[in-house]
Fold:
Amino acid sequence: MKTQIILTYCFVYDLFRRLLMSSNPTIKLIYLPGLNGLRSFNSKARAFSEFIKAKKRVPAYSQFLKERGFDLPSFKGFIPNIHEIPVIDKENYIKKYDINSRCINGAIPFKGVVIDESSGSSGTATNWVRGKRERKVNAKMIQFGLGNLLGNAPLFIINAFALGPWATGVNVTMACSNFATVKSLGPDKLKIENTLLQFGFKHKYVIMGYPPFLKQLVDNPNIPWHNYNVTFIFGGESMSEGMRDYILNKGIKKVYSSLGASDLELNISAENDFTISVRNLMRSNNAFREKISKFAGALPMIFQYNPSDFLMESNDKGELLITICRPGYVAPKIRYNLHDRGHSITMKELYNLLDELNIDRGTIIKPDTDLPLLFHYGRADMTVSFFGCNISPVDIQETIYQIPNLSNMINSFCIETLEDENGTKKLNIAFETVSDKFYSPKDIPIITSDFYNQLAIVNQDFRESRRIAGNEELLSITFLNPGEGIFQENDLRIKSNYIQTKKI
Structure:
């Protein structure tokens, strides 16, 4: 009986929501303040509805549940206990079952489908199926989100994400062409430079890409960035506030991130001026940072998301489990573990914490909506261990941008943990420089000392690990010219590989 009531409720709610999605003015009603109690219920109800549909109509998911002897979650009143449903991820579900069996009715639809693939930065590329309805909804939400951030003036979007079969190239282009002028160039600095010079200052530009490429792009001295109205939208990885400051100081008007994943959806949550102000408060107030943060190290990215569309949970390892609650997906995902670390808090919890610490609420920008905040710390497996401390690429990026002379000379970096035959570990940070003219060999000891001192401030666990290691020779820095050594394999079309581990 409870199952049928919830399914009926979700059916009626989804009809109502589709009406609201028909225009931008009515979409705003979805985000009205004061409705988080309803959104919280919708989150679990719609997740349950998608679970029932997948259980009945997706062969792979049905088999997955049977192998684990799971039928239905229990209820607390009329709220299903979603946390009882087994977790899926790339290893136990995506790689185990073929792509057809992971689709509704066990087959990829014959039309209206786009197949893209993840970048393969962590191994072999994986194919993902996206139907017409889900792409249409996502395009509508991208349009609405950009309108909220940048206003309703016409946009000239330059897609500098990887083109070809990748999700960012295929779907971003198709989604944005419905409401903006779009030129898809990929990560090609010369073509973007030529486009800006030819089309001039009159347009409101949005350039989308990965942070390392955007940093290289803004370092281009041939573009008078201050004379252009350019916003950067980045994704794929985190950006430190130091790097954001660096880009803004070059003349870029605004810089925002959108959280997405090829496995799930391109636009799960997004930054705005409010969330950036919360992140800057963490940056400037250690008491607030320690109280609100769940993990040591660099600042997490902070987004807002709609629980009615995405149910966010965290497991005991602090990894995000995400359920797509929107109907109409060709390949449903229920409690999918991206192996990203993160957690969410409500707006009420945020303000209670500010009050507890006697921080004026006016310190942060007033939000447009009271949607919950998502704290995203990056991939759980994208860290290296050094004497009991976990160091992430975001820690390194944040450290770089705390040292102005260093941020001007670096294109990219790689964290190397080197281990000798006796098991002794050495930590080396390899920097790919813009050119070799920025430093001389005699500068390296000073830069090394400055860098690791700053890293100890960014990641306090490293401070203790450094003390335990006791030997400063175990910490080193290597400078390499562009495209040299370990950077020879770098491909700007995909996310960078920031970690290497090897024997010496």
The domain at 385-503 is CATH 3.30.300.30 (GMP Synthetase; Chain A, domain 3).
